Backbone:
């Protein structure tokens, strides 16, 4: 399974894979070559110095210059190709994960905390990238250096090589014991960090509420508590690392002293030269570094693969079928624009939210859905938009069963204005043209005019090129709603779905939005979750939904007369609560 994840990661190299492998091997061979040639050079120099052989000294220097020149020329090239293929692979992976997040069904975003996905898009990608950037290159470089050092040592004197391998074996054993513990602690640190990221997302997205409720100190102490958790987990790892440093130093020094003593003894016996004894010290490093780092490499691979597994889970998760292209779903003539046939729905098994809803909306009608909070009004819109599919029954759009259609096609027939519409970081024009990329400036301006927001945009210094902040923080609620309406108008879909904001907008905004909706309703079908009395009174039909059922349906004039009717009570209550109809 781990190999599968690694193979998939390498797959992101695509056409750069051969270049990556060649560059990886080149960097590793050059590094190993430098190490072994360094030891060889030391040996040659010392032996030449002891023998007073100046010719050997100068030829050694000449060869070293050539080797260094080769390394200086080749290394940057190999490194560049290596890092470029890694960057390309990470870019490919990031793009796929981003597309994967966009393709997740709506349900995922309603259920999971955004912090988890953010962590995948940042931490997990970074962690997985380490697999081919550092871990594999480290393993290849250490492996080749270790083997080349051991081979050269064996050429010098087999007993030295055997000693170095024994030291290497001990280091490897100790390191693999340490790696297991460090991996567990690494996981604790990662989990604590993910927890902290989720809190950070809350702080950034809920900033308005936090300030309004003066909850900064509460959030700060909560953040501190979690960051103390990260600190404690990190410190635990630091303490263990410090503890391990003692055994590492013992092994390292013991190995060096051992090989030095062995080399010196052999030199005294005339088995090897002094130069070879000193060179063996240098070579020991190559062998023991291999085994010392192997544990780290294994831990690194484990941690990268854990992150890769999380990413692949996300990539392999069921995706929403949006269909290809942007072809608009044609509505059949003579059929209702929207039809619910005995639709029932539940978010969670066993907890029904909508029961047997049947509803016809004829083309060109303005239908208002009203009812108590939690009754299921927004759920009706979510089903229409294909965010969820009915548990029972059918939804037909323009006479076509929506269960046969990819969600993207269903949505092509609708423009939607949610309760709290979102403005993306970008210009006003880009925000209006969200559903119609490539719309002309004239079309954008026309949509803004119809939404009653053109004067406001024209008054801004940069007009349609004015940047609006992430979440639309730089415009008022009323202006944001009108920009969102312009976005819906520009899409020019035959069906308009509106979830009216419950928050009272200023009179001017209400009036403008009301007028815009009325003129839109003249030429298309509008289904609105209504909170304003003016929208309700002007509707062709009112559907009252309570406890997931349609309890009343009819015109305002009819429903208001029903004695003890749900609509009548609600209407009276709204009037006495001071929610006044806007004038028109
Ligand atoms: P309304 O728009 O009338 O206020 P909703 O359609 O938002 O009502 O909600 C209807 C019911 O469904 C409520 O009981 C609500 O708690 C529940 N509900 C809404 N969204 C979800 C969800 N994503 N998961 C589970 N239950 C939900």
Residues:
């Amino acid at each position: 399974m781990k190999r599968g994840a690694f193979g998939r990661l390498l797959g992101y190299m695509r056409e750069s894979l051969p270049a990556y492998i060649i560059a990886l091997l080149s960097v590793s061979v050059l590094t190993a070559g430098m190490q072994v040639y360094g030891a060889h050079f030391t040996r040659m120099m010392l032996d030449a110095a002891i023998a007073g052989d100046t010719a050997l000294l100068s030829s050694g220097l000449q060869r070293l210059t050539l080797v260094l020149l080769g390394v200086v020329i080749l290394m940057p090239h190999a490194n560049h190709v290596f890092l470029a293929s890694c960057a390309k692979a990470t870019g490919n992976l990031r793009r796929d994960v981003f597309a994967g997040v966009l393709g997740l069904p709506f349900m995922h975003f309603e259920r999971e905390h955004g912090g988890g996905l953010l962590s995948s898009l940042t931490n997990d990608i970074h962690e997985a990238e380490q697999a081919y950037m550092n871990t594999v290159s480290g393993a290849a470089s250490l492996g080749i250096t270790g083997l080349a050092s051991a081979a050269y040592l064996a050429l010098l004197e087999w007993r030295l090589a055997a000693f170095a391998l024994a030291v290497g074996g001990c280091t490897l054993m100790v390191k693999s014991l340490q790696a297991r513990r460090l991996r567990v602690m690494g996981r604790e640190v990662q989990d604590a960090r993910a927890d902290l990221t989720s809190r950070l997302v809350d702080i950034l997205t809920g900033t308005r509420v936090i300030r309004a409720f003066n909850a900064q100190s509460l959030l700060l102490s909560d953040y501190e508590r979690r960051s103390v958790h990260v600190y404690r987990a990190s410190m635990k790892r630091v303490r263990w690392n410090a503890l391990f440093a003692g055994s590492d130093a013992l092994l390292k020094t013991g190995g060096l002293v051992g090989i030095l003593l062995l080399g010196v003894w052999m030199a005294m016996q005339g088995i090897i030269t002094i130069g070879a004894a000193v060179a063996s010290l240098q070579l020991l490093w190559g062998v023991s570094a291999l085994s010392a780092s192997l544990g780290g490499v294994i831990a690194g691979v484990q941690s990268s693969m854990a992150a890769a597994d999380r990413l692949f889970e996300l990539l392999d998760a069921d995706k929403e079928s949006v269909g290809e292209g942007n072809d608009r779903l044609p509505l059949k003539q003579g059929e209702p624009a929207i039809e619910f046939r005995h639709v029932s729905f539940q978010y969670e098994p066993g907890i029904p939210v909508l029961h047997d809803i049947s509803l016809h909306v004829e083309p060109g009608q303005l239908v208002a859905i009203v009812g108590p909070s939690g009754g299921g009004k927004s759920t009706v819109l979510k089903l229409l938009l294909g965010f969820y599919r009915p548990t029972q029954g059918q939804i037909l759009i323009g006479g076509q069963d929506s269960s046969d259609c990819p969600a993207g096609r269903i949505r092509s027939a609708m423009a939607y204005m949610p309760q709290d519409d979102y403005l993306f970081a970008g210009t006003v024009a880009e925000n209006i043209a969200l559903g119609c990329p490539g719309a002309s400036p004239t079309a954008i301006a026309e949509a803004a005019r119809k939404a009653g927001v053109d004067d406001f945009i024209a008054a801004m210094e940069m007009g349609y090129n004015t940047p609006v902040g992430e979440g639309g923080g730089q415009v008022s609620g009323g202006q944001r709603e009108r920009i969102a309406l312009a976005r819906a108008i520009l899409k020019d879909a035959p069906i308009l779905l509106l979830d009216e904001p419950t928050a009272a907008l200023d009179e001017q905004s209400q009036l403008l939005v009301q007028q815009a909706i009325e003129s839109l309703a003249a030429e298309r079908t509008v289904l609105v979750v209504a909170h304003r009395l003016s929208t309700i009174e002007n509707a062709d039909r009112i559907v009252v939904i309570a406890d997931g059922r349609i309890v009343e349906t009819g015109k305002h004039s009819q429903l208001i007369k029903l004695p003890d009717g749900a609509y009548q009570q609600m209407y009276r209550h709204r009037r006495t609560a001071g929610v006044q109809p806007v004038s028109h």
Residues 580-584 have pLDDT under 50 and may be disordered. The CA atoms of residues 19 and 342 lie 60 Å apart.
